[in-house]
């Protein structure tokens, strides 16, 4: 995963394998407002990973799903999220089956499992030569 910025507004391009994802900030803070902001992408990672974990868990258990919607909501406290809520709406399984699926999805969702524990974040920098030097 790599991100690059060129002089201009608060907008960058992230390379994820063969895909490029634009990331931006709202105009009110110097971005162009033309792409999701980083916190949107964090919530998107939570929602998408939990969705796929739920669908995977249902397939392994032969529990029918006809529709799934997962919303991820973050509660800001200063410059971070203090809490995240995952709201699941699923059509097909009974309440009992859905409860089992939620337990299973929580075990296999890499993103939420990562966020539940302390993660070491190391920042390593190297100075690049200025343009033309």
Give the SSE map.
Elements: E1 2-4, E2 11-16, E3 19-24, H1 38-60, E4 67-77, E5 80-91, H2 95-108, H3 110-115
Antiparallel strand pairs: 1-2, 2-3, 4-5
Mind explaining what this structure looks like?
- With 133 residues, the protein is α+β, with helices and mostly antiparallel strands.
- It folds into two domains: 1-36, no CATH class; 37-117, GMP Synthetase, Chain A, domain 3 (2-Layer Sandwich).
- The chain has three helices and five strands.
- The strands form two sheets. It has a three-stranded antiparallel beta sheet with strand order 1-2-3, with no helix packed on it. Strands 4-5 form a two-stranded antiparallel ribbon.
- A hairpin with a 2-residue loop joins β2 and β3 (19-24).
- The longest helix has 23 residues, at 38-60.
- The protein is elongated, with a radius of gyration of 19 Å.
- The two termini are 27 Å apart.
- 12% of the residues are buried.
């Amino acid at each position: 995963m790599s991100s690059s910025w060129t002089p201009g507004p608060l907008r960058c391009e992230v390379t994820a394998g063969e895909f490029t994802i634009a990331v931006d900030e709202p105009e009110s803070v110097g971005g162009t407002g033309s792409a999701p902001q980083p916190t949107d992408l964090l919530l998107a990672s939570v929602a998408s990973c939990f969705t796929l974990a739920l669908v995977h868990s249902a397939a392994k258990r032969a529990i029918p799903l006809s529709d799934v919607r997962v919303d991820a909501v973050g509660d800001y406290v200063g410059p971070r999220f203090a809490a995240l809520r995952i709201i699941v709406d699923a059509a097909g399984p009974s309440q009992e089956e859905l409860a089992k699926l939620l337990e299973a999805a929580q075990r296999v969702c890499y993103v939420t499992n990562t966020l539940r524990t302390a993660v070491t974040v190391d920042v390593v920098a190297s100075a690049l030569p200025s343009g033309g030097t």
